[in-house]
Amino acid sequence: MEYSAIENSYFKIGNKHKGLLGWLTSTDHKRIGLMYMYAIISFFFIGGILGGVMRTELARPGQDFLSAQTYNAVFTVHGVIMIFLVVIPGLAAVFGNLFMPIMIGARDVSFPKLNLFSFYIYMLGAVLAVISLFIGKGAPDTGWTFYAPYSTQSGTNVIAAVLAAFVLGFSSILTGLNFIVTIHRLRAPGMTWFKMPLFPWSLYATAWIQLLATPIVGITLLMLVAERLFKIGFFDPNLGGDPILFQHLFWIYSHPAVYVMILPAMGVITEIIPTFAKRKVYGYKAIALSSVAIAAVGYLVWGHHMYTAGMSGTARWVFSFLTFIVAVPSAIKVFNWISTMYKGSISLEPPFYFAMAFIFNFMIGGLTGLILGSLATNIHVHDTSFVVAHFHYIVFGGMGFAFLAALHYWFPKIYGRMYNHKMANWSCVIIFIGFTTLYFPLFIIGLQGMPRRYFDYLPQFQTGHFISTIGAFILGLGFLLIFINLVRSAKKGKITTSNPWGGLTLEWQIPSPPTVENFEEIPVITEGPYEYK
Amino acid sequence: MFGTGASNFVEGVDKTFFIIIGIGALFLIGLTMLMLIFMIKYNKKRHPIAVQVKERMSLELTWVIIPLIIVLLMFYYGYIAYKPMREVPEGALNIKAIAKMWDFSFEYENGKESNTLVVPFNKPIKLNLFSKDIVHSFYVPAFRIKEDMVPGLKDNFMWFIPTELGKFDIMCAEYCGVRHSYMMSSVEVIPEAEYNSWITQIKKKSMKEEMKGFEILKNNACTGCHSTDGSKLVGPTFKEMFGSDVTVITEDGKEQTVKIDEEYIKNSILTPDKQVVKGFNKGLMRPYNEILKDEDIKEIIEYFKTPDED
Amino acid sequence: MSNGKHHITDYKTYAWVLVILLFFTALTVFVSWFDFKALTIAVALIIASIKVTIVLTYFMHLKYDYLVFRLMVSMVFLLIALVFVITFFDYLFR
Amino acid sequence: MRQQPKTSNQKLETIMNHSITHTEHRDDLGAKMGMWLFIFTELLLFGGLFIVYAVYRSQYPDDFQIAATQLNTFIGTLNTIILLVSSMTVAMSITALQKGNKKLTIYLLGITILFAIIFLVNKYFEWGAKFHHHLYPGSELMLTLKRGELLFFSLYYFMTGLHALHIVVGMVILIVVLLKVKSGKINNTDFVLLENGGLYWHLVDLIWIFLFPLLYLIT
Ligand code: HEA
Ligand code: HEA
Ligand code: CUA
Ligand SMILES: [Cu+2]
Predict the structure, then answer these.
(1) Domain boundaries, chain D
(2) Residue B158's domain is classified under what CATH number?
(3) In sequence order, what are the beta bridge partners of B99?
(4) How far is C-alpha A444 from the geometric centre of its chain's CA atoms?
(5) What is the reported pLDDT for A144?
(6) pLDDT for residue B241
């Protein structure tokens, strides 16, 4: 690839090795970030195609081209890939690695070798996940939640999938650890906590969750493996255990994990809006601290996935109460984003459109989250396609759109080249339409009682399912468009200036693509990050 | 929007829905409008120079406090509508609901068993929930009720008063393996008089169904995958199986035709994957070597050997 | 960049700390011979917590290290405690 | 900040060389913070297990009591003492190094590692005795036990097993540290590795301090 703009860019110079080896052994945070990006996008496509397969099967009631067993394996693998391989590392590992050190004025993360090591652990986890598809008795069929005791009994490759999740957890922990130390230790002189841009802030909160929540799922999955291999009973009632305890432990991690997905996404949006509205972000401190608040309270609400699981009545209302409390800091962020646009001077570029789509989808996802959080209504819609719609809205409509926004925002910085704006805008529109057609009907059939993880369904749900399947194909088309646009532009796009959007954070003050060292001299910070005049 | 409603909980639940969706829609529409207006009004072309608006503490506090009040309100309504679901009135009719892979069965206090839930109109019904194997969930959309059926969990229950006559779907709402989506049944709400006569008619079991082997097959949920009436489920039917010929695929992938005898059945139960019946998937039936004792298997074989009466 | 504070703890302090820890070990074994009913676990855990605090403060140098570390450690223990409490909202009220 | 001018080849060279080394700058406090964060993850790992323990003990207090009588309090106490003493020796080794006494440092680290080995040997005999009595996961005897007793033994094996694994890891770390002290890589101006190794060893001790009364001292 030819990146003639900058001679000593990180594309050209890695370490003592050249070419591919230079990439694979590089400890440069930018190169590692980019490797994550390529890996994650590939897994996203695999997971997405599995999603398309499910939708095709669900277009009509009855068996079409998958067997029930295959369908179950498909949604399990789809869930595992999307959650553990795509959205949890997603923004933090890709854009966090690429830009967080630059944004705080550092040359790299605190432990560059560890950073590379996390990447390889990630790949090892990915390989294990893929292996689980092919060896032994077939792909796992437990759902991504691995609920015991089904998961202790199912004859399929549960162990491989569980170990994959365990290994991926390790990678996530190490990334989090690295980021916390980096943010504590390597901020440029003069950059106090409240002069730090908000994307690093959100990564800081995220990193704490990664660090403190992941071990719990680690130990839980280990217990599951021990139960399967050595008959050490923890969860299987035949061996004395309590299945509900597994659910507790699983969600103690997996609920905070949803904030691992969304917090960096919120951080990205908080970077994009001020840049395109040319306004200082409204309520800087409120946004920064609400990230921390979400992380802290979000740790304690896991039971809202278990209202019908047989918990005590007391636990049910306690969890419902806490769940509603977490909604408040999210609301604060939405309000602050919108007020940042007030009286700004908004340039409508592709990243901004994606950001707007994010806010819209996130609001729908979040507000339907409130329906799920309320005890009475959750009883009805729990484990129906209403939940499926909720989390796709918030995970894909939220985190996914934020990823696309980030990609379009930082693309010129990463490659030093610009993509075709018109095509980017069109793909945004198509993806938005496809997305809405795909998931909105699922809310409605969910309210009517369509359970999730159903390979087959009663005829009254057909219309909703059919419309939804059409949406999946429109969505696929949109992705194809984005893909073509970006791949072509990375190689042949117009060479850009170092700061095409007029951003004020540090990454825009250095050449595109950045040099290996990021900064010739470490900058001294005197102003806040968004001081538009 | 929610389909039919046919129990005493429908009103509370649906009301909570409307409150939360209503408030949510207001916010969604309001904020979206704002976003669009700002995008147009403060567009660079129309508004070339941004005005740096000063932050105001009072505004910030407003949008902490108002949402806080709103969510507490939502919590309150959800709680109020939910609370009665855990408070069973005196004198409710007790019925045992048992789930296993992959069917529901119901046992009435007088010993009557049924595969569909038949209940009298307008009477409080308490279901005591049990599971024989893994977690299932009892879901009746029309009644707005759902509760997991957890193996080993004591005192697990749900209750309701049916407020409409008719037949309503029961679905399993916790993923439980291959036939999860077919694990359905129905609630039949009938007038009390009809119910009283229904409950007293206890169908006499056929001779074969009285056998101990059949009991074992039911208790271990074999009948979830194997029918006794000739229909094909996840596994081959048990009907007239004994003594017939079957084509199996051995572990090394070869096809073989074998006669179903005592030895074969025993092996099929203990190591099902050694010889897989052609046309069926391997890995579905798990080895029962730790679950069934030798005597059990003998009883099962005894049952298979017995010819059908009719 | 600073490379941290360096406080040198002398051998005697460590020796004393060990003596105290051994004392508490003996104490916890000793009290386990008595039955305090529901409080038995509480007593055992209180003694264990004292021991852990001592190890953290002296052996692990928290006493002489930066405030951040102390804050972080207390946060983590607080979090674990909260998770316990919330889990028991389920198990105590079933 | 200014736009960076194009660099000559010579400058490129220096940047390249620099880029290999710039990441190696020393930040002891950062390294220590990293170690602490790692310790937190370990605490939560065991924290999850303690939740399981707490739940089952609260549900089956009597079964736990009966089952716990099978454990050997003497070995438990002995191992507690071993860990406490070894914790002290690691801590002292830092003092020794700070005072420039390399030989004493090595000596103290050696003792610590020796204690670790003794701990494992004790554990071996302890587990061995149980296996001898057919009390191990999946054994026939285990399956005849009451629910709570079964859970107790499951937890006992899993928790002490995982802890023993940590002992082994700690031992390996300390051996590496010892070798580095020997070669002079760790010295009285640069000893954060020794401190971090020590921290890890204390963590192993911390966990045992809870395990001991919870498993061995239920009466
Ligand atoms: C990125 C991931 C993500 C995020 C951020 C969230 C955010 C939220 N989630 Fe979601 N959730 C998932 C991912 C996520 N969720 C997943 C993957 C599942 C399913 C797992 C499975 O079973 O497979 C799930 C399931 C799930 C359930 C369990 C459903 C069930 O199985 O029964 C519940 C129940 O309470 C819930 C609630 C919430 C709430 C209240 C929020 C809140 O944080 C939302 C806060 C946001 C807002 C409130 C909107 C913005 C604010 C405004 C527009 C202002 C106006 C607002 C007010 C006045 C309050 N979620
Ligand atoms: C990041 C998270 C994420 C994302 C992005 C998606 C994306 C998609 N998911 Fe999702 N999904 C989950 C996470 C995610 N999912 C989880 C956690 C579950 C729960 C699993 C469980 O129950 O255990 C789930 C469950 C789930 C179900 C419910 C299964 C059930 O309960 O029975 C369905 C069904 O429709 C579905 C469909 C889809 C579709 C169509 C997409 C699409 O949006 C994908 C779009 C992407 C592409 C299409 C690929 C890129 C495009 C191309 C390469 C172009 C060519 C392709 C075509 C033309 C098809 N998913
Ligand atoms: Cu039973 Cu799903
Ligand atoms: Cu959640």
Answers:
(1) 31-216
(2) 2.60.40.420
(3) B104, B131
(4) 25
(5) 92
(6) 86
Q: Which residues pair with A346 in a beta bridge?
A: B43
**Record: contact C91-D55, CB cut-off 8 A:** yes
Of all protein residues, the one whose alpha carbon is nearest to atom 32 of ligand 1 is: A382
Q: Which atom of ligand 3 is nearest to the CA of B99?
A: 1
List the single best residue of A224, A374, A456 to mutate versus B (max B Cβ within 10 A).
Answer: A374
Percentage, residues of chain C above pLDDT 90: 41
Domain boundary among B199, B220, B247: B199
Please state whether the peptide bond connecting residue A317 to the residue before it is cis, i.e. omega within 30 degrees of 0. Answer: no
Provide the edge-to-edge strand list for the sheet that holds B113-114: B113-114, B103-108, B93-100, B125-131, B157-160
Residue to mutate among D7, D10, D19, with most A CBs inside 10 A, is D19
SS3 A262: helix
Instruction: Sketch the domain layout of chain C as residue ranges.
Output: 11-92
- As given in the structure block, the two tokens for residue A504 are 């004020």
- pLDDT for the residue D11: 39
**Window 384-443 of A, Cβ < 8 Å to D:** none
Distances (CA, A) of D145 to A223, A239, A392, B153: 20, 10, 46, 19
Ranges of chain A with pLDDT below 50? 1-4
- Where do runs of H (alpha helix) occur along A374-461? 375-381, 385-391, 401-415, 421-447
Q: Which helix (H) or strand (E) holds A495?
A: strand A494-495
Cα–Cα dist A181/D196, whole Å: 15
Tens digit of each residue's pLDDT, chain D (219 residues): 333 333 333 333 444 444 433 444 678 888 999 999 999 999 999 999 999 999 998 888 888 888 888 888 888 899 999 999 999 999 999 999 988 888 899 999 999 999 999 999 999 998 888 888 877 777 777 777 888 888 888 889 899 999 999 999 999 999 999 999 999 888 888 888 999 999 999 999 999 999 998 888 876
Query: What pLDDT does residue B219 have?
Result: 76
Q: Which residue has the higher pLDDT, D111 or B208?
A: D111
CATH among 3.30.1330.60, 1.20.970.10, 1.10.10.10, 1.20.120.80 for D31-216: 1.20.120.80
Interface predicted TM-score of the whole assembly (ipTM), two decimals? 0.89
* Token code pair at residue A441: 């009907």
Interface of C with D in 51-90 (CB under 8 A): 51-52, 55-56, 58-61, 65-66, 68-69, 72-73, 76-77, 80, 83-84, 87-88
pTM confidence score: 0.90
Task: List B130's β-bridge partners, or say none.
Answer: B98
Residue A213, judged by CB atoms within 10 A of its CB (0-12, 13-18, 19+), counts as: buried
| Nearest-angstrom CA–CA distance, B147 and A316 | 13
C79 Cα to the center of ligand 2, angstroms: 34
| One domain, residues B76 and B108 | no
Inter-chain residue contact A313 with B141, CB threshold 8 Å: no
Which chains neighbour A (Cβ–Cβ under 8 Å, 3 or more pairs)? B, C, D
Question: In this structure, what CATH number is given to the domain that contains residue B227?
Answer: 1.10.760.10
How far away, in angstroms, is A55 Cα from ligand 2 center?
8
D88: nearest CB among C10, C14, C32:
C14
Q: Strand pairing partners for A451?
A: A384
Task: Name the residue range of residue B234's domain.
Answer: 207-305
Q: What is the pLDDT of residue A392?
A: 95
Structure tokens at A59: 């277009």
Check which CATH number belongs to the domain holding B75 and give it: 1.10.287
Class of domain A4-509 as given by CATH: mainly alpha
pLDDT given at position B244? 87
Ligand nearest to the CA of A385: 2
pLDDT at B249 over 90: no
Ligand 4 centroid to residue B27 C-alpha, Å: 22
pLDDT score for A179:
95
Number of domains composing chain B: 3
Domain assignment present for residue B67? The answer is yes
